[in-house]
Amino acid sequence: MHGYSRLGNPRAAGSPPSSPRCRHGRNKNAGGRGPKQSIVEKVVVLLISVVFKRRGVLLFAPLLYISGMLLYMGSVSFDVVSLKNAVVVVSKRSPPGSLYRSPQVFQKLWPYMQAESNHTHNFLMTVWNSKVHQVWKPCISEDTPKEGTALPKSNGLFIIEANGGLNQQRLSICDAVAVAGLLNATLLIPIFHLNSVWRDSSHFGNIFDEDFFIHALRNHVNVVRELPGDILERFDNNISNIVNLRVKGWSSPAYYLQKVLPKLEKMGAVRIAPFSNRLAHAVPSNVQRLRCLANFEALRFSNSIRILADKMVDRMIKSSSHSGGKYVSVHLRFEEDMVAFSCCEYDGGEEEKREMDIARERGWRGKFRRRGRVIRPGANRVDGKCPLTPLEVGMMLRGMGFDNTTSVYIAAGKIYKAEKYMAPLKQMFPRLEMKDTLATAEELAPFQGHLSRLAALDYTVCLHSEVFVTTQGGNFPHFLMGHRRYLYGGHSKTINPDKRKLALLFDNPSIRWEDFKRQMQDMLRHSDQKGVELKKPSSSLYTFPMPDCMCKEAEARNENSNTTNKTDFNP
Questions:
Q1: At 60, is the pLDDT very low, low, confident or very high (cuts 50, 70, 90)?
Q2: Rounded Cα gap, residues 431 and 410, in angstroms
Q3: Is 98 exposed, middle or buried (0-12, 13-18, 19+ CB in 10 A)?
Q4: β-strands 494-495, 467-470: how paired?
Q5: Number of other residues whose CB lies within 10 A of the CB of residue 65
Q6: CB-based contact 170:524 (threshold 8 Å)
Q7: Which pTM value belongs to this model?
Q8: Range of lowest pLDDT (148-162, 163-177, 194-208, 443-457)
Q9: How far apart are CA 203 and CA 189, in angstroms?
Q10: pLDDT tens across 344-369, in order?
């Protein structure tokens, strides 16, 4: 955040005249009256003089520092309103970007959006213009052992419990495959824990294709559906009797080899529950390749999910025939629980605050009422932590150049006050679809009450869109970005907006349309440039599959000709 004065321009307010005594007693060498001192300057001079005369005041330095930081960060903010009769009148003001004023911005910009409707070229055909000189391709299969190669004798059975939502479970499954390969263990089809938030009783086979998963991993890791008979007998037919190892988050391969493997070999079976984020990001390449294989090749959705998801994708393509079958997908996180958890305020007043308090208590029982817990909605908004509203997403996309003929798919749960908040988005994008508009009630009936299966439908429709828009982070967009990079030559084709900048822009009802468009188009160009990005040591392979899961196709471009020579090589 850029620093700015909380007191405005002291000269503009006008300082009171100094006393004659002070006037005659200073600046004698100047031959005239010196510059006036503002109230702020006098206070600063006074503080400095006291500090030098009374060094004990230095004990208050930490307090002064904290006060200064609060002023800078906007927690405490004052404006000079007037200065009369040597009395300073101040009033508190909100720092830029801390208020939800998007509806006012929309009222200002909507006429300009209407004027540009149907007058722009088909933006979806040319939205990605990044000049990429290297294209990436999947190359996991290059390390696959020859068909029929026998796996070494197993060291024992490895059992994990996957918790959380769809993509948290996906992460646990892929990491379990990697650890099983590392330990030369037999992997039991992962058990899904009934999550208190997702409340989905689905098993592995309800969401993923078990047969395909086992077959795809056959040359790397042995996977079984059920506990072998000898293991059951050894543990009295009770899986709970198998020791549950407590493994720290992000543990290294060395930890598994030194701590887990000896117990596996001794007891013949070990269990880790829960198994969420239990393997470090930075691991040897052979372990990373198992992650790649599991996530991008072995895990595919169950037959029932694939059939309906494919129909939904086909329907989106047909409804986008005017743009060559290309459409935009948006992961919109504006469900009640997400709004409540963010501790952000919108335009619902006291009713909204009451509803959010109830939702927080229902979902997180006392977490937000603990002693010392301070909720700062304005600071959250300035810091880009507030979920974007449907209105804000729509304004952003229109500013980037997507007109009202663009087909848009919204991947979301139940939107908070949908009738109110979705209306302006539909106004900007009439060709708007969601699960319940793209599929019939009869088609969706088997999926109702199973949030992970519904999320799998959203995942598939978003995966095949020309543009994917993420608005709030989380596992869903992170896995999608990686999967899209894997499918689309290394480019995620994802708009990842700068929400700190958006907070400032949406808090400025006087902004000009041309200025707003320029800012949005800069944001789109930045997303385009970041579309092809290599994995850093601390990053997740599931979001950045290059270079561990993909290989480069080098393109030698001649600027004076249209010929391109390609050479394949491994990273």
A1: low
A2: 11
A3: buried
A4: parallel
A5: 10
A6: no
A7: 0.83
A8: 194-208
A9: 10
A10: 999 999 999 999 999 999 999 999 98
Bridge partners (DSSP) of residue 269 are 157
Summarised one tens digit per residue, pLDDT across range 107-145 is: 999 999 999 876 556 899 999 986 665 789 999 876 677
Length of the chain (residues) = 571
Among 9, 161, 165, 155, smallest CA distance to 80 is for 9
DSSP 506-569: TT-TT--HHHHHHHHHHHHHHHHHTSS-PPPTTS-TTT--TTTTEEEEEEEE-TTSS-EEEEE-
The Cα–Cα gap between 320 and 204 comes to 34
Contacts of 239 (CB under 8 A, 6+ apart): 159, 227, 271
| Nearest alpha-carbon partner for 216 in 168, 183, 177, 253 | 177
Nearest Cα to 492, choosing from 522, 458, 526, 517?
Answer: 526
* Location of structure tokens 């988050």: 249
Six token digits for residue 234: 């050894």
What is the Cβ-side half-sphere exposure of residue 208, based on CA atoms within 13 angstroms? 27
